[in-house]
């Protein structure tokens, strides 16, 4: 690997991490937290320490301002320009691009049946759903979306969390999960058709994230309103949803992303 290629790879990693998950808080786990069914099994965060809480709170405040002053207004304007159906198709397209990596993670976790389901979803939606713009796998074949990530794979392999951390723009994570995010970003973006052009990549990922936020406007405010301490509320929401993911939950009512 020459220096030019290494530099290009580093740039793609930075842009991907900053834009693929640019909004600091994953609304998928926020929706889980707001779901009444999620309270059937309360999640504890006692097993994961938060030794950097003062730093994390400072970053949380920065992220909160970035979302409130920049991302949410942009996503709101975007939602007024494009109808929800079109934004849903955009979300389906990007979600479908991530299916190969989810299938690999299922294999690495020994979830062979679910890996096959993910592969089936990918081919059905790519061919019958016009490159993933539609989701006939869910609607016609009743093959629900499957949750799987490298952070979860590392957990199955016995790697500990380390400690809780809030990252600028990336939001809630642990050392293990962030490492998984880095690996996942590198693997996923390696086969994206636009990954050779840094400007195009930044634009596409920016659209992806704004589109996703536009489909979940109001969720963040709902989370913050549930507690006098929004920092604790979002930390609990993160671990609660992650624990549900560790139970190999198959999404019966998928959230577009």
Could you describe the 3D structure shown?
With 257 residues, this protein is mainly α. The chain has one domain (3-251). It is 64% helix and 5% strand. The strands form two sheets. It has a two-stranded antiparallel sheet with strand order 1-4. Strands 2-3 form a two-stranded antiparallel ribbon. A hairpin with a 3-residue loop joins strand 2 and strand 3 (171-174). It is globular. Residues 1-26, 36-44 and 252-257 have low confidence and may be disordered.
Question: What order do the helices and strands come in, and which of them pair?
Answer:
Elements: H1 3-20, H2 27-34, H3 53-81, H4 84-97, H5 99-108, H6 112-128, H7 136-139, E1 145-146, H8 150-156, E2 164-167, E3 171-174, H9 175-190, H10 198-214, H11 219-225, H12 230-246, E4 250-251
Antiparallel strand pairs: 1-4, 2-3
Helix pairs in contact: 1-9, 1-10, 2-11, 2-12, 3-10, 4-10, 5-6, 8-9
